[in-house]
Design brief:
Helix content is 21%, strand content 32%. The chain is an alpha+beta fold.
Length: 374
Amino acid sequence: MAKENIDWTKVTQAVRTDVRLRATPNPVARAVDIAHVRFSRQDVMKQGRFLADFGLREVPGSDGWQAFGGTGGYGPCYLLQQGEDAFMGLGLAVSSRADLEKLAAQRNASGIEPALCWPGGEQVRLTDPAGNSVYAVHGPFVEAASPRPPLNQNLDNVLQRLNDMQRPPEQAATVLRLGHGVLGVVDFFRCVRWYMDHFGLVPSDIQTIGEGDPALVFMRCNRGDMPVDHHTVVIAQNVLNLFSHAAFECIDLDDIAMGQEWLMSRGWKHAWGVGRHLLGSQIFDYWRDPVGDKLEHFVDSDKFTADKPADVSPLSTGGLYQWGPPVPADFEKPRMTPSLLWKAIRNIRASEEMTFTRVKDLMRAVATPPRPWH
């Protein structure tokens, strides 16, 4: 059915009341933010150089892991170890040690143990339905402090800068904190339900294929009346279980733009940007690390409280951005090798959710030209 013939008011109401995406009244624990992402790399020295040019600073590591942080947050926000090139999981900060105790009592969870590379922090190791390691962490939070305030701007009749010039420093962007992580999963509803049930995440935006069939959800933490980022974890249905990207907050647009200049001068590979997202409203700029994984700089996220209902929209690449360059063809598509294709076929056949028909619907949605002039 053509999307212009769909009554999106009815679709929105139906999706908001879909029991598979309904918020969990009493989750096991409540996440308050994302804490970190973990990776292994064969060439840790090259990865470390990229991370420094991206704007992360190295902090003391432990147990064979290197640690990189922003200027604030829940311990280091990027953890790196020697090994095969792989995504090794993510950390979600929870509201109390009691939450750790409840999560430790879950099936296949670890006991409470010291948090990796975070003095004073503790963690519990879990595994989501896609096989990703998820670390619930609790410990001291450090308010992010930028080395400079956001630049003043002269806009229309608002004069903020007189007899002075704009001269942002020529350096790497300043990473304040990790903002969110995005995952591709085969069993979409199982994974979304798991994060809702275990960490109390709630949908901010739901995107659908066809008439009201959810396939992507932006989820945020539920902190009651306290404003939180539009999304902390994003789950998108895919034929593979994979890491899409992690996003790191910066100071302002100039910080992102100068960070782009810095990364380009160092010869790193640009992925997409600068632009402004539609869902979440962040100004973004994406980069690929030495093995091709994507990391994002962002500023200016929407902030929601718990009473904001989810919005619903059709899945398309055009829904990713309000302005900016077109989405590159390789932005979300892994390089299809025979082994990767065979793995995708096995995943589809084994999944209770994914079908070949659904794959076609997903491919049709993302293949739609994002703008009439593209």
